[in-house]
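no rush on this but wanted to send it before i forget. what follows is a protein written twice so to speak, once as letters and once as structure tokens for the fold. mainly i need to know what kind of three dimensional shape the backbone takes. thanks a lot i owe you, the record is right below.
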Amino acid sequence: MASRKFITTIEVASKELEWEKQALMAAARQNKLTFATGVYNPDKDSWRYYVDVNTLNKCVKGEKELFRA
């Protein structure tokens, strides 16, 4: 498993970008974001979200696009 210093939560990303948490979750589930992804677990019927800290920081600084092409 990746070290926690490289992965953060949707809540942190939401605060950094000043976006609604639900909007980020929906975009991550659809694989629309460059810095986050949502993974569905059918056994638990739930989603888990992974946010790459380095990529998020680049997006916040304007060095990388927020959305996938």
Notes: The first strand starts at residue 7 and ends at 8. Residues 56 and 63 are 10 Å apart (CA to CA). Strands lie at 7-8, 36-41, 46-52.
